[in-house]
Amino acid sequence: MTVTTTAIAGAEELEDLRLSVRSLLADKSDESRVREVMESDLGYDASVWRQLADQVGVQSLAVPEHHGGAGFGQVELGVALRELGRALVPGPFFSSVVLGAGALLAAQDESAMAAHLPGIAAGTTLATLAVIETDGQWRTHGFTTRAREDAEASWTLDGEKSLVLDAVGADLYVVAADTPHGPGLFLVESGAAGLEVTGLRALDPTRRVGRLTLTGTPAAALGRPGNGTAALEHLLDRATAALAAEQVGAARACLEMSVAYARQRVQFGRPIGSFQAVKHMCADMFTRLEVAEAAATEAARAVDGLPDAPPAGEAAAVAHAVCSEAFMFIAQQTIQVHGGIGFTWEHPAHLYFRRAKVSQLMFGGPAVYYERLLERWGV
Amino acid sequence: MTVTTTAIAGAEELEDLRLSVRSLLADKSDESRVREVMESDLGYDASVWRQLADQVGVQSLAVPEHHGGAGFGQVELGVALRELGRALVPGPFFSSVVLGAGALLAAQDESAMAAHLPGIAAGTTLATLAVIETDGQWRTHGFTTRAREDAEASWTLDGEKSLVLDAVGADLYVVAADTPHGPGLFLVESGAAGLEVTGLRALDPTRRVGRLTLTGTPAAALGRPGNGTAALEHLLDRATAALAAEQVGAARACLEMSVAYARQRVQFGRPIGSFQAVKHMCADMFTRLEVAEAAATEAARAVDGLPDAPPAGEAAAVAHAVCSEAFMFIAQQTIQVHGGIGFTWEHPAHLYFRRAKVSQLMFGGPAVYYERLLERWGV
Amino acid sequence: MTASAPATPATPASPTASSSSIEAFVEEASAFLDEHATRRPTGTGRVVWGEGEDRISYFGDEPPEVDRAKVDAARAWQRTRHEHGFGWITGPTEYGGRALSPLHDLVYDQLEAGYDVPDTGVISLIGLGMIGPTILAHAREEIKQRYLPAMFRGDAIACQLFSEPGAGSDLANVATRAVRDGEEWVLNGQKVWTSVAHHAELGMAVCRSDPSQPKHRGITAFLVDMSLPGVEVRPLRQMTGGAEFNEVFLTDVRVPDDHRLGEVDDGWRVTMTTLMSERASVGGEGAGPVERAVSRSYLTAMLEAMGLSRDAAARRRLAEVLADLTATGYLNQQSLRTLLDGRAPGPEASASKLMFSHNLAAASHLAAEMVGPRMIAETGDWGTFSWNELLLGTPALRILGGTEEIMKNIIGERVLGLPKEPGTDTKAPFRAPTGEQS
Amino acid sequence: MTASAPATPATPASPTASSSSIEAFVEEASAFLDEHATRRPTGTGRVVWGEGEDRISYFGDEPPEVDRAKVDAARAWQRTRHEHGFGWITGPTEYGGRALSPLHDLVYDQLEAGYDVPDTGVISLIGLGMIGPTILAHAREEIKQRYLPAMFRGDAIACQLFSEPGAGSDLANVATRAVRDGEEWVLNGQKVWTSVAHHAELGMAVCRSDPSQPKHRGITAFLVDMSLPGVEVRPLRQMTGGAEFNEVFLTDVRVPDDHRLGEVDDGWRVTMTTLMSERASVGGEGAGPVERAVSRSYLTAMLEAMGLSRDAAARRRLAEVLADLTATGYLNQQSLRTLLDGRAPGPEASASKLMFSHNLAAASHLAAEMVGPRMIAETGDWGTFSWNELLLGTPALRILGGTEEIMKNIIGERVLGLPKEPGTDTKAPFRAPTGEQS
Questions:
Q1: Cβ–Cβ of D170/A368 closer than 8 Å?
Q2: What confidence tens digit (pLDDT) does each residue in D238-278 have?
Q3: Could you point out which of B370, C354, D301, D434 has its C-alpha 20 to 30 Å from the C-alpha of B161?
Q4: CB C183: neighbour CB atoms within 10 A?
Q5: Percentage of chain C surpassing pLDDT 70?
Q6: pLDDT greater than 60 at residue D12
């Protein structure tokens, strides 16, 4: 697909986009390749990353045109994320394209956007977001990381950030920190003084995680110091809507894999899918997936502000809850449908299971997302 | 069975007791009789009540010997309650034998016990317990019903008590009220001045419910005024252990009915029980019932203080939660196994469903029983 | 943000196909509705605790006179619609229809949803929605002319005479006999679970015409005048206490052969076309007492009224129920949008039906938990004991119109392409079930 | 009230049957244990957050050298037991047993649970518990004499060579061929999911001896010396990352006919007797890392450590998990009491197995929720990321040793007496599955 300059893609364009991403991934990032790169030093396939940028423009989809992007929205990004989720493609898509670019957009800092969005859109700058601290809680205020402004109006950061996606290898960190004016977001460049980046052993080998230690590290304020909470809340809507797309893409792969196996695997002289136990398990997976798909679709439409869509805060929170539960459920049942083979390391089911649990917890987990849903409604 | 004077019945005696109750109920209180009496004015079969007292001594089982009872404990009472629950026998068993007698025992008021337990044990006095007030909350302190002591040390009560089991027709009410010394329990006799008793339309037609209005109603203190909370907490262990027995008895009837139907009902040329959907539904019911049965058994043993039993507070709270959930689940699935016929008024499934919901809620419901479980453990 | 129920679009979303004619139709329909009905006030989703009717019933369960009055109002409104050209929007003109597209039909429904009009479900769900199309496809010309206009004018309510005591999930197991006698058929048997039968002028009966054939063959379908001698309708009391359904006994009912639907012994195919429309129509949303109660507005008002606004456990459970409920609403909206775009709906309708019963059951158990002991008897407190009606009604949703197990078979086999169970009784000749079946 | 784990009785509860001999046995066993092992401190159930080993793994998943050391310790302890008359309490004296009752066996287990001794599961669960009794029942005299003493002395660990890629739930579908060649049989095929195989000296192989017979017939069972040429054991890595199981490839393995178990073509019956003991032995409780973590003490300590002591939602979910966990404990205690009373256990063991996997899964998802994002990577915080091991292990509990679906079939059919599905492949001759099956 050649990325056009219209802001809303039609059904046909969306289908073209989907097929472009799917065929590129089928070619270059099949399961055996995923397993290879997930155990490599880098953790992803740099050439796939480049091709997705150059041939399809995935990294640029939701970046505004005047910042070097395609100017599409969450709906279009969601189509690509479904495919990336489906194939469990390792790489800094979520961290850089969703969280990094998303934070820049949420903070509405024109000069920062002008400086960094073109690089992110081109896939040449890798950004990520650092919010969670050593207590492991997702929050939007009350950070122990402190930002201090010196006489020359330049900022330094002190603190520790944990569970940062794709921390190792990122070029640019958006760091949440408390300032005397309230919570703010700050940009820290890789290699900055007093910045230490460490990789952590992660549950999901296709989604790397690290830790930042900041000691008097120079940083640039992103937007107005004090705007951190609002920017993070706004970002959370976009990020969870994007995550929902990735979740339903991956969950659909699980369902398809389960159905294919249930049709072909024979026990007791019959394909196991002819037994109601297995058939109804698949039907339950289908039902949860349909609802999750609807929620993910509606969240993207809402974030894009389509006229007949519900409020973004509602739809994103609904999708975050429903898609997290659905993907976790479907990933579990996928193992059950496959029986013993589904429990082996060699079968992809466990990679989806790992991704499902990480997706469910990365923004705080059920306790947080259900409560957030009520808050979005003012309950 | 002739009720003996030993305090712990052996396995054979328990089996005799079970068979005595079951055969009497099969004879005198089958489903059509239950339906008849549940719609009668009295709401139960007085002759069945009498025969259970005279021929089996169900009402006297757990009353101490020196108060005219058989001196058995919760284990023996549980055997009888399982049968009463199984047949959904209407009547004031739970209200009088479990709650009424239980409150007298819990308050440890020797003179009140001497005065009333023999009548309850003989089935000639009908007692019940009035705790819940107009807000519908189960509580053990903070009552709006007030007890006042006059110069002659006699008490009067003012307030309203709601959701009182078998209120209409009871001879004796144990009423929880606040006193200047704290919560207390009081005895009010039927026909007392200022006592108004009204029946309410109940969810479960085999378990009647009413309301008391007390206006300057004379009452006798049961135990020391101020001991109400402790007595009610103690009573709750006995009452929920007893309820658990009734729940598993009723739930087992549901499972047996479902299995019998699944074996006999033919659709698509096969008994429906040969389909995994129905077979596994029954297996799930069985599994939950086995666990519930174990919890009910352990609760009774614990309340009776058997040497290798867990603490009564723990076991009763576990049984209350597990048996409430199991019975509700099993009653629902019983309707599902039966299909359309299970949804008719003429089929007994809905009577079990109603009983299951009432049992689950009468002491406050899930929010209360789960929290109570943690409190019993000091969590 | 105000607490209002998930919005149902009162105006159709971008009807792309033949939009100019649609626009004219919208104008015409709006004018008709403005003249004959009152526009519903917007924001009616808002619930004020303690205000309004305190009934939360999925089934009617109302006294017969109330029931009757509602049916009369439905007939009257259907007649008004019909007189103004909105009685049968997609129907052929020769039978009183407008010959417009299904999109026009949908657009009209969407418009009408914005007005306060009598509920015509008793006429439309089964009669117009399912039996009308079957008559159109399978009846003789004179039968079409005789019944279709009457049905769409609200004069003839039609019911299904399908299920039997021995034919529930296994509908092809019907044992009601149809024996040919010259130009008539003699019908004998018992039908069950027939909603609407006590109001119906017409029934569609599925009968066994040849027991020596395998069970899916040897079935013939008939249109039965419910006033014929030998047709006896008895109310069937369901577990809620009301009688929404009926048993229908057919004793030597003589039906003329011209009332046959489709060919002799080909009734299973006829029945399938009838049922196809059913699966799609169940599980939709409405504005009835259940939809009002099982809503964000009601349930959050309830949370507050029960003093649980700050109880994290109650909040968590409420959020779980509302997440599913809202997402199911999105799913239904998207199906509707697909239809309005002129595209065929996908298999999401079966998911929606399963979610519908799941959501109602979850909401009623949550409500019971929030209410607590006040659920066990009528204390007179608004919004407490009234939940019983729904609580007792939800088990039926997992059974009626196809059990959940049958729905899951359909999803597994037709949507996902999983193999059927090896059949054991599709080839053998049908033998009428004997008495031991219940 | 102190927060301690549900008590496991360290002394047997009222052994009624032949109690005098039991009392002497208790004294003898206690003296043996006091001399050779250390009594476990009481109250070990108490968890202090942050103290102790931070591993919550259902499967071994340990480095090979650690694994090997544990097996050596198990062998050594089994030998010590054997030397003092506790190696095979119920076994016939001619093979080194004590010829005492199952009650004595149970009493010994209960006593030993009070001491800190090496876990001998690797020897006892499959070898002594299942294959030992099978050899006793079905092997020739010289085979019994050769292997039984060695097994119960800890010298020969035995494994099952049952499951195959094409024979999982449908175990009778085995395709491994056994072809007779004079006084030997030649075995060819692939076995899978064989735990313990990498430590085993012996295997019990279920093979297809006559493919022309229906599948439950034409099966023959053999005892296979794992050191024979053609036996290849390859570790099978499971989703947790460790390799608790193996694939075993049999290539022209020549087994003497005297190593046959039972009659030729009667191996299914032999296998069934082996499996009967399995169903009962799975699902028990122990004192391993999983039992320590999935306990009231650990989980309530976790609630506090995660700052959720006053969070009603977390409390509610914790209470739900603990209620099931505690009630399942009661169920197991009651089964044990039944056994100790000398009565036969009821069908509650199958319920217990289903609850076991349910409880472990529920606890691990609850723990994940309490931990939150720290579950996604190893931050070094005690009691957080370590839950992954259990989380990733629990799906296996619904599959291994009989899937939940098979367990539910067994409950439905054998316990509740529901009819089997009409069989489609029990009469037809077996044909070895071809390559397209995976």
A1: no
A2: 999 988 899 999 999 999 999 999 999 999 999 988 887 65
A3: B370
A4: 9
A5: 89
A6: no
Best CA proximity match to A350, nearest among A331, A325, A326, A330: A331
> What is the per-residue pLDDT across A250-276, written as a single tens digit (0 to 9) for each?
999 999 999 999 999 999 999 999 999
DSSP B122-181: HTSS-EEEE---TT----SS--SSEEEE-TTS-EEEEEEEEEEET-TT-SEEEEEEEETT
Contact A202 D376 (CB under 8 A): yes
Q: Choose among B193, B198, B80: nearest CA to B130.
A: B198
CATH of domain D43-152: 1.10.540
Phi-psi region of C171 (alpha: psi -120 to 50; beta: other; left: phi over 0): alpha
Please state, in angstroms and rounded to a whole number, the distance separating the CA atoms of residues B49 and B35. 16
Q: Is the minimum CB–CB distance between B368 and chain C shorter than 8 Å?
A: yes
- A360-379 pLDDT, tens digit each: 999 999 999 999 999 999 99
Question: 145-174 in A: which are within 8 Å (CB) of D?
Answer: 162-163
Considering only CB atoms, D170 lies closest to which of A132, A267, A336, namely A267
**Above 50 in pLDDT, residue D362?**
yes
Tell me the pLDDT tens digit for each residue of A146-174.
999 988 889 999 999 999 999 999 999 99
Contacts of C155 (CB under 8 A, 6+ apart): C75, C79, C201
- For B354, nearest residue in chain C (alpha carbons): C392
Nearest Cβ partner for C369 among B277, B340, B367: B367
- Per-residue pLDDT at A227: 93
Q: Do B275 and C405 lie within an 8 Å CB cutoff?
A: yes
**Nearest-CA distance from C312 to chain D in Å?**
5
* Residue B302: per-residue pLDDT: 97
The single-letter code of the amino acid at C343 is R
DSSP class of D41: P
Helical axes D102-112 vs D19-36, angle rounded to 10°: 40
Both structure tokens of B49: 């009540």
pLDDT range class, residue D425, cuts 50, 70, 90: low
% residues pLDDT > 70 (chain D): 89
pLDDT digits (tens, 9 = 90+) for D25-49: 999 999 999 999 999 876 556 789 9
| C278 assigned to active site | yes
All residues at 6 or more sequence positions from B375 whose CB lies less than 8 Å from its CB, including other chains: none
- Residue C112, SS3 per DSSP: helix
Chain A: residue whose CA lies nearest to B275: A276
pLDDT in tens, D187-220: 999 999 999 999 999 999 999 999 999 999 999 9
Q: Residue A162: which of D379, D421, D428 has the nearest Cβ?
A: D379
Helix, strand, or coil (residue D205): strand
Token digits for A236?
Answer: 């959370």
Domains of chain B: 11-125 (1.10.540.10), 129-226 (2.40.110.10), 230-376 (1.20.140.10)
Phi-psi region of D232 (alpha: psi -120 to 50; beta: other; left: phi over 0): beta
Q: With left for phi above 0 and alpha for psi between -120 and 50, is residue B163 left, alpha or beta? A: left
At residue A80 the predicted structure's pLDDT band, cuts being 50, 70 and 90, is very high
Specify the DSSP element, H or E, that contains B233.
helix B228-264
Q: What is the pTM of this model?
A: 0.94
Task: Report helix, strand or coil for D176.
Answer: coil
- Token pair 């109310």 is at which residue? C235
Residues of D annotated as catalytic are 278
Distance to chain C for B134, nearest Cα, Å: 8
| CATH superfamily of domain region D158-267 | Butyryl-CoA Dehydrogenase, subunit A, domain 2 (2.40.110.10)
Q: Which residues of chain A are at the B interface, by a Cβ-Cβ cutoff of 8 Å?
A: 275-277, 280
**Could you give phi then psi for residue C187, rounded to 5 degrees?**
-105, 135
